[in-house]
TrEMBL record:
UniProt keywords, alphabetically: ATP-binding, Nucleotide-binding, Transport
Species, as recorded: Amycolatopsis jiangsuensis
Protein name: Manganese/iron transport system ATP-binding protein
Stored PANTHER family: IRON TRANSPORT SYSTEM ATP-BINDING PROTEIN HI_0361-RELATED, METAL TRANSPORT SYSTEM ATP-BINDING PROTEIN TM_0124-RELATED
Gene3D superfamilies cross-referenced by the UniProt entry: P-loop containing nucleotide triphosphate hydrolases
Listed InterPro entries: AAA+_ATPase, ABC_transporter-like_ATP-bd, ABC_transporter-like_CS, ABC_trspt_anch-rpt_ATP-bd, Metal_Ion_Import_ABC, P-loop_NTPase
Entry-linked Pfam families: ABC_tran
Amino acid sequence: MAERQLELSGVAVELGGRQVLHDVDLKLDESELVGLIGPNGAGKTTLLRTILALQPVRSGTLRVGGRPPAQARGRVGYVPQRHEFAWDFPISVEAAVLTGRAHLRRWGRRADSEDRETVRDALRRVGMADLASRPVGELSGGQRQRVLVARALAMRPRLLLLDEPFTGIDVPTQEALTDLLSQLRTEGTALLMTTHDLAAAAGMCTRLCLLNRTVVADDEPARLADADVWLRAFGLARSEQLLRILGGAT
Ligand SMILES: Nc1ncnc2c1ncn2[C@@H]1O[C@H](COP(=O)(O)OP(=O)(O)OP(=O)(O)O)[C@@H](O)[C@H]1O
């Protein structure tokens, strides 16, 4: 049976005294790729940060690999939005990816041969092995995205969270990333990805989870063909543009 990597049941989260998420139920097993879709401000990033134990759960239950999130940090990789990384920091690509292993190493200990081999392997997987010594500030947007993915892979996560990984990247990087996510799935990694690219998500995800403060719908893309579900998720009236974007899906 597939191993459960993530389970949320009735989860509520508050930010600044305001309830941002309520009654969130979500399950994710190994080898699943779930697209987290919702309008701006729906709580997608907050949900990822809560799974990473960066945000407390107000009520409900959250388990990562069967454990409370604070005890499961070593099994969750995170690819943040690109603007969240300090690209002006004067370090090489290799050093940036090595930071992905920092919490697996004892504080102050130097990187060993296993760390370096894991970093090289992660850079190979994202097609960046040739640029290992390049300063991160000199990279293009697509190359930066690859570095963030390699950094998350360097910890060999069982669960990988990706925040808008396809936003603003070139087509070759989109294709390479799509292939990589599919490979990770076949290796058993569970993947949860926020995206605004509905067409890409429908094409590659095993399930789509429509979030708007709570889970409005969660199913295989082909089974989410009802326009009303999408309209509810996005809080829209029937006439709006989303119906046209969804095209055949509605
Ligand atoms: N530190 C904070 N304090 C109070 N409210 C916050 C804080 N951070 C975010 N919020 C609010 O929480 C809600 C959810 O934000 P979040 O960033 O999780 O949404 P999102 O779905 O990721 O949006 P986007 O698609 O725009 O990235 C928003 O209304 C936002 O304004």
